[in-house]
Design goal:
The complex is a heterodimer of chains A (about 500) and B (about 220). Chain A is of the alpha+beta class. Helices cover about 25% and strands about 30% of the residues of chain A. In chain A, the strands form three sheets. In chain A, strands 1, 2, 3, 4, 5, 6, 7, 8, 9, 10, 11, 12 and 13 form a 13-stranded mixed β-sheet that branches. Chain B has about 220 residues and is mainly alpha-helical. The longest helix of chain B is centred in the C-terminal third of the chain and has 33 residues. The chains are: A alpha+beta (about 500), B mainly alpha (about 220). Chains A and B meet through helix 1, helix 2, helix 3, helix 5 and helix 6 of A and helix 1, helix 2, helix 3, helix 4 and helix 5 of B.
Chain lengths: ~500, ~220
């Protein structure tokens, strides 16, 4: 008999061996009975499909998927304006948002350089930017598993008015982030010297804000207001700056086309930053672009060894500097205490939940969808979506899926999902095992699957059949509440601002 | 304070930062032919997804086949999974692309099983299709015995709870490592191994019990 903590590993290794080679030898320490059962189990559970059948299925499935994807993606592509609307963090409305945003931008830059130590050096500006972008988005790893650094930044509010910030950042691959942002100077005045109504509320750490992102949850903690906000890591402050492809999935992806069209990038040479050789890149907005209205140029210094951006500045269209930042210290691949990336709201802490996209954006999307399908589309009230579930955007599934409309809500760790599927009604006859529930004025059919972590609710309304599938733990009451909130999509004139709460 | 420049200063920095990513436009496959690189290229052109499809179709299809029991359903599901992968490439957050795909598959299969649960009957177990019939070439006595043993184990597997069948399907039919399964199911790699080990142990006990039952029946018959 093996030590209990060793046998699972051995069994797993034997399964791996059998999957590679049916005649694989079992690891020595496993007893005969376990070996026999593992082998029988693998043989019983393996799926053997003839090559010809597999090839035929491969071709059919690809054709169907590609067709469906093309049908689905075409209407999902919005205008540049629409894409920007999905980025609530770009609407810099409040001072607090500006701080968060500036800090996030700083973190992004830090992340830019993060990885890549031993790869061949690219020789053109575009490739340097590509690698820096990969580091920023965590979509490519260049060997930097962690870092800790402090950067200082000055952001100009106007020609003569600026804020000074320093940000301390800890990052652990692939997606853990902590950044502590301290505002030192606000509107040219050192925070401790601010008086009267201009003086902001400060905490023990002064005027500060901290982002903690454990990869699944992103928290924004304001030490000045005792406010705690939870964000979807894909769109929240941590995810915005660092959380890898999560970032690419939102702002970078949305801005990609726009920025690609709007900037010319050149390699200006190399300079020393923090005692390290760095590429100096110049980005210039092309004439008649949105950026050209306010930006004349931006400069970025990218570390040659790690592709981490070490320093940057940008200038407004009038030649005045817009912002400037630079790392003052940097440790690459240090050991970081995991507790740095953990935040748990204490009992009684009031947490506000921030989700994206906005209601206005949802309405626009639904209006677009309603115009594409031949049945009445129903839009949920997003405030009735169970807490923690975020929409991944509704879309038309195309002819392959009978023109149905799908919207998936996922938890930020992707472990639970709610799928709302709409199609032209009436729906198929349903069995007796379903429980009748009241969905507003009509009757729906509910089936819960205790133990299987899921449930389904179906109903017909205004000629539309709706099936809501839950993968995860959502109560019947919450599901009925969500279903009851569904209403025909209101008419919105193209380009008209959507109503806000 | 000038509102206009204040509005510009931060987005300006961000626009500039985000523009870094744009240089991705230059398609140089030699530098970015990893799974995640391909996936990023597929975000703008679904056809670019083809290498990933070639790489993972077989495992996804076999996994679907194992969980549905029928070729048509498996193809439907695989189509849905790859459609979602093609249209949802932006939801990829780094890490193993295989695990990302199987997470989509796992959710799709869960929905499928729930739907079928709704349309068929509550307790109907997973079916096993004709693709699982014994290989006709296996005609020696020894092979027949082995086949019978496999069938008995398969029957025992059918009695396992759905989460355990899902784990086996991911590990064996889908060929996922314990680490990737952990990423799909949100568990630690070690926890996946322990769960697999428990299944093996449980099947051993059930197998012994069923053998004893058979012996008892034989004795009664005699």
């Amino acid at each position: 008999m093996n030590a209990p903590n060793r046998e699972p590993e051995l069994v797993d290794a034997y399964i791996t061996g059998l999957l590679d080679d049916p005649a694989a030898q079992a690891p020595g320490p496993l007893d005969g009975s376990t070996v026999d059962m593992t082998r029988l189990l693998v043989e019983a559970e393996q799926v053997n499909v003839a090559d010809t059948e597999l090839q035929a299925a491969r071709a059919r499935v690809w054709q169907r998927a590609l067709q469906a994807a093309n049908e689905t993606q075409a209407p999902a592509t919005g205008s540049a304006d629409n894409r920007l609307v999905r980025l609530p963090f770009l609407r810099i409305a409040s001072l607090k948002q500006r701080w968060a945003f500036a800090a996030v931008a700083a973190v992004l830059v830090f992340a830019l350089a993060a990885l890549l130590v031993s790869t061949p050096k690219p020789v053109n500006a575009a490739e340097i930017l590509a690698r820096a972008g990969k580091v920023a988005s965590q979509s490519g790893s260049y060997g930097l598993q962690s870092y800790h650094g402090v950067l200082s930044a000055r952001t100009y509010q106007s020609e003569q008015e600026y804020n000074d910030t320093y940000v301390e950042i800890w990052f652990q691959a692939p997606d853990k982030v902590r950044m502590e942002n301290h505002i030192l100077v606000l509107h040219n005045t050192p925070v401790p010297q601010m008086q009267g109504s201009d003086r902001p509320k400060t905490g023990p750490d002064g005027l500060s804000m901290t982002v903690v992102d454990d990869g699944a949850n992103s928290w924004l903690l304001s030490t000045t207001t005792d406010e705690v906000q939870w964000y979807d890591p894909r769109t929240g402050p941590g995810g915005l700056g660092i959380a890898g492809a999560a970032f690419a999935a939102t702002s970078l992806q949305s801005l990609q086309a726009n920025a690609a069209q709007d900037y010319d990038v050149t390699l200006e040479g190399t300079e020393q930053v923090l005692g390290r050789p760095a590429y100096k890149l110049l980005l210039k907005p092309k004439p008649n672009t949105r950026e050209a209205r306010y930006l004349s140029q931006a400069t970025l210094w990218v570390d040659q060894a790690t592709y981490l951006a070490l320093k940057g500045e940008d200038r407004l269209s009038n030649g005045q500097i817009g912002s400037y930042w630079e790392y003052k210290s940097l440790e690459l691949n240090p050991q970081i205490d995991p507790a740095r990336f953990v935040y748990t709201p204490s009992a009684g802490t009031e947490v506000s939940w921030r989700s994206a996209p906005t209601e206005a954006e949802q309405l626009r999307q639904w209006s677009s969808i309603a115009a594409q399908v031949q049945f009445t589309t129903l839009m949920p009230n997003y405030s009735d979506v169970p807490q923690g579930f975020l929409s991944t955007a509704p879309h038309v599934m195309g002819d392959t899926w009978h023109g149905s409309v799908e919207e998936v809500f996922e938890t930020s760790n992707l472990q639970q999902a709610i799928t709302i599927w709409q199609s032209k009604g009436p729906g198929p006859a349903r069995p007796k095992v379903a429980e009748q529930v009241q969905v507003g004025p009509i009757t729906g059919l509910y089936v819960g699957s205790p133990g299987a972590g899921g449930s389904t609710l179906e109903f017909d309304l205004d000629g539309t059949h709706v099936a809501i599938n839950v993968h995860g733990e959502v109560s019947k009451e919450d599901l009925v509440k969500l279903a009851s909130s569904m209403r025909p999509v209101p008419q919105v004139a193209p380009g008209a601002p959507a109503p806000r709460k | 304070m000038s509102t206009s420049t204040a509005m510009y200063s931060t987005p300006l920095l961000t626009s500039w930062l985000t523009s870094l990513y744009m240089a991705e436009e230059t398609p140089q496959r030699t530098l970015r032919d990893s799974d995640s690189d391909i996936l990023q290229q597929a975000q703008s052109d679904p056809a670019q997804f083809a290498p990933l499809y070639e790489r993972y179709f077989s495992d996804i299809y076999k996994y679907c086949l194992r969980r549905t029991g029928g070729r048509e359903d498996a193809e439907d599901l695989a189509s849905l999974i790859f459609t979602r992968a093609l249209t949802g490439a932006r939801s990829y957050r780094g890490g193993s692309v295989r695990a990302w795909l199987f997470r989509i598959a796992h959710n799709a299969v869960a929905n499928y099983l729930r739907d079928r649960h709704l349309t068929l009957s509550v307790d109907e177990p997973d079916g096993r299709g004709a693709w699982e019939l014994a290989d006709p070439a296996e005609d020696t006595l020894g092979q027949l015995v082995q086949q019978e043993e496999r069938n008995r184990v398969a029957a025992l597997v059918m009695r396992l709870p759905d989460d355990q069948r899902e784990l086996l399907a991911l590990r064996i039919a889908g060929g996922l490592s314990a680490r990737d399964i952990g990423a799909v199911l949100g568990k630690q790699e070690s926890a996946v191994r322990v769960a697999l080990h428990r299944i093996v142990r449980g099947l051993q006990a059930a197998y012994r019990a069923s053998a004893e039952e058979q012996d008892d029946e034989r004795n009664v018959t005699l």
